[in-house]
Amino acid sequence: MRRLIIVFAIGVSIALGIWYWRHPAPVAVVVRAVETGPVETTVANTRAGTIKACRRAKLSLPSGGQVSVLDVHAGDRVGAGQILLQLWNADLRAQLRLAESQLTATRSRTEEACLNADMAKREADRLRPLREKNLVSTERLDQAVTTAQAQAAACRTAQKTEQVNAAQVAVAQAALERTILRAPFTGVVAEVTGEVGEVVTPSPPGIVTPPAVDLLDCSCVYVSAPIDEVDAPALRPGMTARISLDAFPKRVFEGSVRRTAPYVLELEKQARTVEVEVTFAAAAGDGCATLLPGYSADTEVILESRPNALRIPSEAVLEGGRVLVLGDDGLLHERHFQAGLRNWNHTEILTGLNAGERVVVSVDRAGVKAGAAAVAEP
Hints:
single chain, alpha+beta, conserved putative lor/sdh protein from methanococcus maripaludis s2 fold, Elongation Factor Tu (Ef-tu), domain 3, 4 domains, four-stranded antiparallel β-sheet, 4 helices, elongated
């Protein structure tokens, strides 16, 4: 009897072991319900982009000399045409005044010569009818006509001399302007190199020297970002984009594609990319106060969007267009589906799944496979 009990107990243990081996404990899985929501196809930059001002000029003078006037400092706002910096130019100003004086004197001589020419012409015109009546001699008329012609030539000569002196004034003004640095547009001074009394020199050929004044136009900023050459053909100006900045981690800026570069960048040891410019859809405050040129930025260009698509998390998708669905029977079932739009977060479902079904997103866990018993984690 005792032997029978022992044999029975061993048989029960073996049976339980076989049952347990064939029916292991359910695998805990993370599931998400098939739902309705927006799905977009997007293209993102391969490396961090950079915020740039629409206009930025690194200004230097074409000639060297000693700084005599420095009217601006870093952070100052300046208007177009405003003087930023001047070199010592007393000699050039004296030459300009001399040229202007010579022009004034020449104008007076031109006026005198032309008045004499006009008077001589009137005299010749007065003698012609008198000669027809034989009241004056032919010699006197010829003398008057010759005098009028000579005075007219003197007037023309004086006018040409005046033009030469006016050109000399323009030359003197141009020489003076080479010592004056003016703002080409309204903006903010980013940096100033040099102080009053220092000597500045222009950059020699092939050698880059710091600019005298770095000027930014803060009324407009944009993002320049590299896009992989494979994605570049799908981009068009005007496409909607989203911009995110490391400086504002909780804020997303709306934007649009302004321009795609007409060439591919070929950098050593890096994928070939195309530079894409994305502008901000609305002014986000003062450009140089809020969106500083030089900030790193990421862009995401929206190629296509569906606002009410049936979707699942993209991490649930297996190779070959498959997903694992947790059924009401507690088992995992493999399901094939047809995908539409997709991105890193969501994949659109065209056919094969229904709203409310639970798909497994923790597909990399051990034991997660079709036919396995599973239980959804809370």
